[in-house]
Amino acid sequence: MKSSTILGCVPALVLMSLAPVGCGSDDNSAKTPTVDPALAAMGKDIFRFDTFGDETFWTDTLHMNDVIATVDPTKALMVGLKVDAEALPAAVVAGVMDKSISLTDPKTTIALLQLNAVVGVKGTVEKVNGVDTLTRVGITCALCHSTVDDSFTKGIGKRLDAFPNPDLNPGAIIALSPALTTAQKDVYNSWGPGKYDPRYNQDMKNGPTVIPPAYGLLGVNRITVTGDGDKIEYWNRYVGVTQMGGHGNFNEPRTGVNVTNGTDDMISSKLPALQEYQLSIPAPAPPANSFDAAAADRGKMVFEGAGKCATCHSGPNLTDANSKLHDPSEVVSEPEPNDAPSYASRTATKKYRTAPLHGIWQHPPYFHNGTAATLDAVVETYDSRKSLGLTADQKSDLVQYLKSL
Ligand code: HEC
Ligand code: HEC
User: Which of 23, 175, 241, 376 has its CA 20 to 30 A from that of 265?
Assistant: First the structure.
């Protein structure tokens, strides 16, 4: 008799809302989750270009339009902003090449914004007294969660949606606002490139996290490093309202965050498509010849055996997130650097989610606080903190396996 009787399926069906769980190899309940391509295509535009009306914050409150108008493209690239080469007309590309268009002239920044070519920044340029003037500016999800492939030059190339931008220094950018106090500027300036504290403006604590990728999340039903939401939508609403300053509302009784911006909700209706787009983006495969395949095979054995990694990094996404979260005492990334408070303690769950590992080669540094600069450092951390006693060969094989994911 088969185990997948109707009765035997009931628990699996109940669990389906949390995880794709099957109840037998010969029925259809074990489907991998899928995405709707038309909805995802709508979400792509939202991800790249929608500000949800956050100009109210970036322009009216922070006056970033006045700041940006004084920043030339070379300086903008230095704080990690990226330029979408595909948005540049041939004449502009030629002009940059023959230097007739200057990358050290702030007017070029305004022209790039007019072309909608600055990744994650949307500007409105209008003639004021005959001069092209940046009158409104806002940001999109792509600011932090996109980079470019540098195919034109460093910082200018084709968009890589959902890749974290490791060069972006959001704190340093925000700190340029004339609307902030010195104490606030000190906090923003303390974060550095590739990091952002998405809770500082709510709980006034300072402990930035690494900007994570927004890819490879299909089937992961715990979102953020602490698993605060069971859908991407949850966190997109949080960031859209409380961090970007978009119009809409976010209410979370577990942390006491309750924010409403404006009376015109410009976020809610976009969340399903926005989520679908992110779910449609797989983790990027490792580049050819970027790891030793034989060593990676041996490393997999270490991962599943002596390293005990698979006790938490299990299943197709290499995480047990859909069934449990972990107490900070089990996790090797605390205590936080620079005496920052435990990040988990500031969140809704107070725990950490086992990180999904596909595409891990792409986004150093590792752990929510970036305390491991490389995969070698990750393995060293586990070996010492968990007293694994791995040999040098086991450690290097394990690193090769991590590079292969
Ligand atoms: C200013 C930078 C910034 C912006 C803008 C931003 N994010 Fe994030 N995002 C972060 C940081 C930092 C985290 C990590 C927070 C955590 O895990 O606690 C994060 C987490 C996430 C995650 C969770 C990933 C995971 O592994 O669970 C997703 C998905 C995401 N962001 C998507 C978006 C989308 C969509 C938008 C636009 C609505 C957006 N973000 C805007 C910085 C940003
Ligand atoms: C007790 C459960 C548990 C075990 C065992 C475990 N991990 Fe993890 N792992 C986690 C959690 C939780 C995180 C997220 C920590 C954070 O973000 O600070 C994580 C994060 C990571 C990361 C960083 C991911 C990122 O996106 O930055 C890597 C790489 C990793 N683990 C590899 C391993 C390896 C290799 C082993 C075995 C030596 C292992 N883990 C054992 C729970 C575990």
Answer: 175
Q: What sign does the dihedral 150-152-156-159 (CA atoms) show?
A: negative
Q: Smallest Cα–Cα separation from 355: which of 332, 381, 387?
A: 332
Backbone phi and psi for residue 67, each to the nearest 5 degrees, phi listed first: -65, -50
- From CA 68, how far away is CA 271, in angstroms rounded? 29
Tell me how many domains the chain contains.
2
Alpha-carbon span 177 to 222, nearest angstrom: 34
The whole-model pTM stands at 0.92
Cα of 381 vs centre of ligand 2, distance in Å, is 10
**How crowded is the C-beta side of 201, counted as CA atoms within 13 Å?**
16
Q: Which domain-ending residue is among 253, 279, 305?
A: 279
For residues 261 and 242, the answer to whether their CB atoms sit within 8 Å is no
Cβ(43)–Cβ(284) below 8 Å? no
Q: Which of 101, 313, 355, 35 is nearest to 224 (CA)?
A: 355
169's tokens = 């220094």
Q: What is the DSSP string of 234-245?
A: HHHHHIIIIIS-
* β-bridge mates for residue 178, sequence order: none
Distances (CA, A) of 153 to 148, 156, 157, 158: 10, 5, 7, 11
Which CATH number belongs to the domain containing residue 309 in this structure? 1.10.760.10
Q: Residues 265, 328: one domain?
A: no
Query: Is any atom of ligand 2 closer than 6 Å to the C-beta of 318?
Result: no
Give yes or no: residues 220 and 147 share one domain: yes
Tell me if 367 CB under 6 Å of ligand 2: yes
pLDDT band at 34 (very low <50, low <70, confident <90, very high): confident
Per-residue tokens: 239: 């960031």
Q: Is 354 in the pocket of ligand 2 (CB under 6 A)?
A: yes
